[in-house]
Design goal:
Elements (H helix, E strand, L loop, with lengths): L6 E9 L3 E6 L2 E6 L19 E8 L6 E3 L2 H12 L3
Parallel strand pairs: 3-5
Antiparallel strand pairs: 1-2, 1-4, 2-3, 4-5
Length: 85
């Protein structure tokens, strides 16, 4: 299973009005619309099924687990893993 602050490569398998379903290593996760770079950024393209993303695990205890594709969340997770929070 996933671990909090773990970084993964994931593939979008579904796009919905509130977020994305992604798959990584045969497991499914969810990215809320505000945790994908395209929402709120007109210059970023919309998410599409088949797109590959680098993500970080925010909450592995939820069903499905929650991820983020935002660089700031990835950077925070790296600092937390390194003990520099």
């Amino acid at each position: 299973m996933f671990r909090r602050h773990e970084e993964l490569d994931a593939t979008i398998v579904a796009v919905g009005p509130v977020g994305l379903m992604v798959e990584s290593g045969g497991e499914v996760g969810f990215i809320d619309q505000v945790k994908h770079p395209s929402w709120g950024n007109a210059s970023a393209g919309p998410p599409r099924v088949g797109d590959r993303l680098h993500v970080v695990v925010l909450d592995e205890s939820r069903e499905p687990p929650r991820f983020s594709a935002l660089q700031r969340d990835i950077d925070i997770a790296r600092r937390l893993r390194d003990g520099n929070a």
